[in-house]
Amino acid sequence: MAYIDWSERYSVSDKHLDSQHKGLFALINQLHEAILERRGRDFMVELFAELGKYVEQHFRDEEAHMRRISHAELPRHQADHKYFIDAIGELRARCEEGDGNVGVDTIDFLTHWLIDHIMGRDRKYIPDSQAA
Ligand SMILES: [Fe+2]
Question: Which CATH class is domain 15-127?
Answer without folding.
Answer: mainly alpha
